Structure formats: C-alpha cells, structure tokens
Amino acid sequence: MAEVLASQCSTWDQLLDELEARCARLAAALHVDAQLVDLDIAAWKAPESGMPLPARLRQRAAEVLGQLGELIDAYARRRNDIAAQLRAVDSVPRPPLDAAVYLDAVG
After folding, report:
1. What's the pLDDT score for residue 107?
2. Which of 71, 70, 67 is nearest to 29 (CA)?
3. Torsion angle of alpha carbons 69, 71, 76, 80, nearest 10°?
4. Is residue 95 situated within a structural domain?
5. What does the DSSP 8-state code read for residue 104?
6. Residue 96: inside a domain, yes or no?
7. Cα angle vertex 58, ends 11, 76, to 5°?
8. CA of residue 63 relative to chain centroid, distance
9. pLDDT (tens digit, 9 = 90+) per residue, 40-54?
10. Which of 53, 78, 49, 48 is nearest to 64 (CA)?
C-alpha cells in the first residue's frame, strides 16, 4: 500500500510540476508580444489513470489552481486592452485609396 501511495504522489508531483512550469511560462509571456505569438498553449489533459489526489498535495494543487485562475483573469484583461487598442487604430480616419500608394520612379 505504501508503494502505491508513493507512486501516486510521484505521479501527481510530476503533474503539478508540469502545471507550475506552464503557469510560469504563461506569466512570463503575458506582456511580451513576441512570446505571445510563439506561445504553445496546447490543452493540458489530466491523466486517465483515475488516481485520486493524495491529501498531502491538496494545498499545492489548490495553489496551482489559484495561479491558473489569476492567469485567466490577466489574459482576459490583456485581450481587452489589445481589443481597445485595435478599436482606437480602426477609428483613425484613412485617406481614400483612389490614388496610387507608391511612386513608380523607373517607368
């Protein structure tokens, strides 16, 4: 029984490590546009083993869940800020495109 519990804890430790690393990458990329473009946001899937979360890891899992919630809120604010910037750019009047947009100096 102790071996099974140790195996479950090890697996959950690894899963929580992975989620914490993803949170760190997401937090670091939040305000760096170049990183946002290249950010791998593949969906995370829980293991299908059906192993219950060991009691000693509940606090850590709750903290990771809290980090994810904060990141969701932060990315929603970032998205709204970018949308507002795009609306501002779209509101700038543009000259009509009746004339050429470049000068042909050769021909």
Report:
1. 65
2. 71
3. 150
4. no
5. -
6. no
7. 95
8. 17
9. 777 777 767 678 889
10. 53
Which range marks the domain in which residue 41 is found? 2-90
Q: Where are the alpha helices (DSSP H) in 1-107?
A: 2-29, 33-38, 58-90
- What's the pTM value of the predicted model, to 2 decimals? 0.70
In a domain, 67, yes or no: yes
How far is residue 101 CA from its own chain's centroid?
Answer: 39
Q: Which residue has the tokens 């305000």?
A: 31
| Count of domains forming the chain | 1
Residue 103 lies in a domain: no
Q: What are the tokens at 38?
A: 């290249």
Helix (H, G, I), strand (E, B) or coil at 102: coil
Number of neighbours of residue 64 by Cβ within 10 angstroms: 19
Give the integer Cα–Cα distance in Å for 86 and 19.
32
Element (H, E) at 12: helix 2-29
DSSP 100: -
Distance in angstroms (rounded) separating the CA atoms of residues 103 and 74? 45
